[in-house]
Write a structure and sequence with these properties.
Helix content of chain A: 25-40%
Shape of chain B: globular
Distance between the termini of chain A: 40 Å
Order of helices and strands of chain B: EHHEHEHEHEHEHEHEHH
Number of strands of chain B: 8
Strand order of the largest sheet of chain B: 7-6-5-4-3-2-1-8
Distance between the termini of chain B: 12 Å
Mean pLDDT of chain B: 96
Number of helices of chain A: 11
Mean pLDDT of chain A: 96
Low-confidence stretches of chain B: none
Oligomer: heterodimer
Low-confidence stretches of chain A: none
Radius of gyration of chain B: 17 Å
Strand content of chain B: 5-15%
Structural class of chain B: alpha/beta
Order of helices and strands of chain A: EEEHHEHEHEHEHEHEHHHEH
Largest sheet of chain A: 8 strands, parallel
């Protein structure tokens, strides 16, 4: 007697928005390549069930000031270019295969170097001139200061179709206006909270910013630090989007490097934690493992730091997209 | 929630006149108003205003010209249903309705299969309207079985347990709620379950409140569709709120607005 295997495939009524970042000269920018993410009609890598027309991409992180407090394994590959964001970005792209650059305007932090909006814009132009990949520009984290920096930076990068971030429930008006005025996409941030992820998107839509120009950043936790909690939030957001909730049917972004390289498992030298193995191997593995979990949760853009972790993650993406044993 | 807009029905004078004079104004107005209010389907019904199946086709075509919303072809006459189905331009369509009467099932179920339509089945048969829970479940199951055997998926089937006016048949209302719950046990996934919502408030003075309260209670038992006045903002807000309580929608402070955006899709 033969047993019929039931067909458990689902078909989802809606697709996740496809979002293109970067603009070439033909499109009014100066990028030599663009990136399109999203467009999924099924859960991550369920190729048997639906389509995943765009693969997830890896962006590498560059700062506007030297990242002196980075752990040794991530400082060493960039030690000679930490003073030169342009050269730093170029190394990420040319040598380490970064598909996007995330410029983090850490130097503008009023509690730190407190650099001016003009200095931030000049650094952004420098990075844009050094590499041809699309850019993410991430503020310093102070709402008031970000609202001073971004008008100047967004104008300096006008037409480049960058991804700017982040907007939150309490601070979205300036960036949504700038995104519309200068042709940029936005990252909508919420603190591992599905309701607030939805709310910040609704607020942006309410002021007329199109949902097709938004990526969701649901916050990120490193492996061992609440990752399963974030995973479940991302999974639920994605399922709701596929079911037709347009307010959450956006690609998702994860800020991997900053989280992973803040935890002791990734950065503590073996001398401090005997038995944990060489940090040079352990750190990148921790970052790559974290990234893999988020790929499975539905991440479309991963911001990362260590070149070896980037290589491993890109290899994983190729495999998961059906590109053989890699 | 599947919301079926009830307003394009010749039971309303403006629609009856439109059908008689072939003046599309009233039909267009209600098509647009209901689509904007979040209707999933627009019900079209020529009622007693006409016996000509071509009038059903005219109604369908008139609606299709102004909105992209799916259409519910509503008639007790098979010829009118068929004319409506043939006029559909490829968008989603719902057949409203069959009963559990075998003679009717035999003719209407194949139409649903042929047109890949949703099928709404009323829990009544040649013996008339049900007066208890058992008859409602029996007739509902009869429709469900006939539709499944013909190849429709559970989520293409909508069962209607026959909602009656609280003013005249008060004892029937809890029977309807019980039947809804029993329908959810027919299969996994279950069929959709709908009612003609306005019936419950028929001839009452607190109509809005009665309709709204019934709807929320029924949703808690498994109702996930309704033929109703989708332009009633308080009703739609109650639906959106009930969906939150059932954890079908993600909470946000602006959840009603989010619900409307979603329904419009």
């Amino acid at each position: 007697m033969t047993v019929e295997i039931p067909d458990v495939k689902k078909s989802w009524p809606h697709a996740i928005n496809a979002v293109t970042i970067g603009a070439t000269s033909a499109e009014g920018g100066t990028r030599t390549s663009t990136v399109t993410v999203g467009g999924e009609t099924t859960l991550p890598f369920y190729h048997f069930e639906g389509t995943m027309p765009n693969k997830p991409v890896v962006a590498m992180e560059v700062w506007d000031i030297p990242a002196e407090d980075w752990a040794d394994p991530i400082r060493e590959p960039f030690a000679d270019v930490l003073n030169d964001p342009g050269a730093w970005a170029k190394r990420c792209v040319d040598e380490f295969g970064a598909e996007m650059i995330c410029l983090r305007l850490k130097g503008c932090d009023p509690n730190g170097a407190n650099r001016s909006p003009e200095e931030a814009a000049s650094t952004a132009k420098q990075v844009a001139g050094a590499v041809g990949v699309p850019l993410i520009v991430w503020g310093c984290g102070s709402d008031d200061k970000d609202n001073e920096i971004f008008p100047v930076v967004a104008e300096a990068l006008s037409g480049e179709n960058c991804l700017l971030g982040t907007i939150t429930e309490d601070n979205y008006k300036t960036l949504t206006a700038l995104g519309t005025a200068y042709g940029h996409k936005l990252i909508a941030e919420s603190p591992v909270d599905i309701n607030m992820a939805k709310q910040v998107n609704i607020l942006a839509l309410d002021v007329g910013f199109p949902s097709e120009n938004i990526l969701i950043y649901p916050s990120t936790g490193a492996l061992g630090y609440g990752i399963e909690y974030v995973y479940s939030i991302m999974e639920r957001l994605r399922i709701a989007g596929l079911k037709g909730d347009k307010v959450v049917a956006m690609p998702m972004l994860c800020d991997i490097g900053v989280e992973v390289w803040g935890v002791k498992e990734a950065k503590a030298p073996e001398s401090e934690v005997p038995g944990w193995g060489d940090v040079k191997a352990r750190g990148p593995m921790w970052e790559a493992s974290t990234a893999t979990v988020y790929l499975l949760a539905g991440a479309d853009v991963l911001i990362m730091r260590h070149p070896e972790a980037v290589r491993l993650t890109q290899q994983t993406i190729v495999r998961l997209m059906g590109g053989g044993a890699g | 929630m599947i919301l079926i807009g009830e307003r394009i029905n010749a039971g309303f004078k403006d629609i009856a006149n439109a059908i008689r004079t072939k003046d599309p104004t009233a039909v267009e107005k209600w098509a647009m108003a209901q689509a904007e209010a979040g209707a999933t389907y627009l019900d079209v019904n020529i009622g007693a205003a006409s016996r000509d199946p071509a009038d059903m086709a005219w109604l369908v075509e008139t609606v299709q010209k102004v909105v992209p919303t799916k259409i519910s072809v509503d008639s007790t006459k098979i010829e009118a249903i068929e004319a409506g189905l043939n006029a559909i331009d490829g968008r989603g369509v719902l057949i409203n309705s069959t009963t559990a009467d075998p003679g009717k099932l035999e003719r209407i179920v194949p139409l649903a299969v042929k047109h890949n339509a949703m099928l709404l089945g009323l829990a009544m048969d040649d013996r008339g309207s049900p007066q208890n829970v058992e008859r409602r479940v029996e007739s509902g199951a009869m429709v469900f079985m006939a539709a499944m055997e013909a190849g429709l998926a559970p989520d293409q089937i909508i069962l209607d347990p026959i909602l009656m006016p609280i003013k005249f048949m008060q004892e029937q209302v809890p029977y309807v709620l019980e039947a809804i719950e029993q329908y959810t046990c027919l299969s996994d996934p279950p069929p959709h379950i709908s009612v003609g919502l306005s019936n419950v408030g028929s001839k009452t003075t607190e109509r809005g409140r009665i309709v709204r309260t019934f709807l929320v209670m029924a949703m808690a038992r498994g109702l996930d569709a309704a033929i109703c006045n989708v332009c009633d903002e308080e009703l739609i807000a109650a639906v959106a709120t009930a969906e939150l309580m059932l954890n079908k929608e993600i909470y946000s402070d602006s959840y009603i607005r989010a619900f409307l955006m979603r329904q419009g899709s």
